[in-house]
């Protein structure tokens, strides 16, 4: 596999690992999103000044308003974080 294909496979696996904890197997509920962020992107939550900011951020990922984060919404999170990291290094 190419590096990009490997990275995509890792994203699939990461999403599935957390989505399969409880509830629907192809969606992340609020608790699963929070656990994913705590374990996979700990610096993101540590930068939050209060728990309300974290809840607001998690809610902002739910574009279709179904109270869950599907894979495309998860990928939006990945894209946002990647852009933040990329542009902070320029």
What does this structure look like?
The protein is mainly alpha-helical and 90 residues long. It has a single domain (3-88), classed as EF-hand (Recoverin, domain 1). The protein has 5 helices and no strands. It is globular and about 35 Å long. The mean pLDDT is 88.
Instruction: Write the CATH fold name.
Output: Recoverin, domain 1
Mean pLDDT over all positions: 88
Distinct helical segment count: 5
Low-pLDDT windows of residues: none
Strand count: 0
Based on secondary structure, the structural category is mainly alpha
* Major sheet characteristics: none
- The dominant shape is globular
Number of domains: 1
What is the assigned CATH homologous superfamily? EF-hand
The percentage helix is 55-70%
Q: Into which percentage range does the β-strand content fall?
A: under 5%
Order of helices and strands: HHHHH
- CATH class label: Mainly Alpha
Examine the secondary-structure arrangement and name the CATH architecture: Orthogonal Bundle
Rg from Cα: 13 Å
Q: Roughly how many Å apart are the termini?
A: 29 Å
């Amino acid at each position: 596999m190419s590096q990009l294909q490997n990275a995509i496979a890792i994203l699939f696996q990461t999403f599935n690992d957390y989505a399969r904890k409880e509830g629907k197997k192809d969606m992340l509920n609020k608790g699963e999103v929070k656990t994913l962020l705590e374990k996979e992107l700990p610096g993101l939550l540590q930068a939050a000044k209060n728990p309300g900011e974290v809840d607001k951020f998690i809610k902002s990922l739910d574009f279709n308003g179904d109270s869950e984060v599907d894979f495309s919404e998860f990928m939006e999170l990945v894209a946002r974080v990647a852009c933040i990291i990329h542009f902070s290094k320029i």
